Amino acid sequence: MAEQTQAQEKAPVQPKTWQEALNMWDDGHELSLFEVESEGADQRALWGAAFDFLRGTVSQDALAAYSFTQRERDVVDSIVAVARKTPWKKFIQQHIASGHISGMALKKS
Q1: Total domains, the chain
Q2: Domain annotation covers residue 4
């Protein structure tokens, strides 16, 4: 029983909305996410850019300042677009449920 409680305490949190996810990311909480397509960019950098975009500190045009390929900028844009119209928990779970996309836990560095 104690092992289960410890595992639950260490499990990444699954927020309900992108706003909750953004706040938790900013506070340094580890979040359950999924691996996104990358052409060499670090997953934390891609998710970090998506959270910057959601926060409103980065616009789509400003994504060009990141050292991402066009495909990676499109991925960030897609994360943001879907996150804004889909409940966060559902958004994450749908991507992982197929088994073709790996789930992962990340936190802001």
Answers
A1: 1
A2: no
Per residue in 16-45, pLDDT tens?
A: 999 999 999 999 999 999 999 999 999 999
Q: Does residue 85 belong to any structural domain of this protein?
A: yes
pTM comes to 0.84
Tokens of 91: 């958004």
Distance CA 8, CA 27 (A): 19
Q: Could you tell me which residues are beta bridge partners of residue 104?
A: 33
**In Å, what is the CA distance from 104 to each residue of 60, 76, 79?**
25, 17, 15
Q: Which 8-state DSSP code applies to residue 63?
A: G
User: Rounded distance, CA 56 to CA 9, Å?
Assistant: 31
* Residue ranges making up the domain that contains 41: 10-106
Phi-psi region of 91 (alpha: psi -120 to 50; beta: other; left: phi over 0): alpha
| Chain segment 86-102, per-residue pLDDT in tens | 999 999 999 999 888 99
Looking only at the bridges linking them, the beta strands covering 103-106 and 31-34 are antiparallel
